[in-house]
Design goal:
The longest helix has 10 residues. A four-stranded parallel β-sheet has the order 2-1-3-4, with helices on both faces. It is built from two helices and four strands. It is an alpha/beta fold.
């Protein structure tokens, strides 16, 4: 990682909060600046996050798995549960 560049801005996105610690740990290990944690049990806030990413407000959406994400998701999404 280039230390001259600012850290990537990440949002933790979870339908269930049980993996929040693992996702935060992943963001910390990756050197991300976690700017928000979104708990979205109904799955209605993801489009807002995608719009924020496309608008340049955030760089990475970190979540536990693909189960709550649409198949046509465009921004960078990292799955903590599958990186072990």
């Amino acid at each position: 990682m280039d230390t001259n560049l600012p850290p990537l801005r990440a949002v933790i996105y979870l339908r269930e909060m049980r993996y929040v610690d693992e996702c935060n740990d992943h963001a910390d290990r990756s050197g991300y600046d976690t700017v928000d944690t979104v708990h979205d049990p109904d799955g209605v806030l993801l489009q807002e996050l995608l719009n924020r990413a496309l608008g340049g407000e955030l760089d990475v959406i970190v979540t536990w798995d693909y189960a709550s994400l649409p198949h046509d998701t465009v921004p960078r999404i990292e799955l903590v549960g599958h990186s072990r």
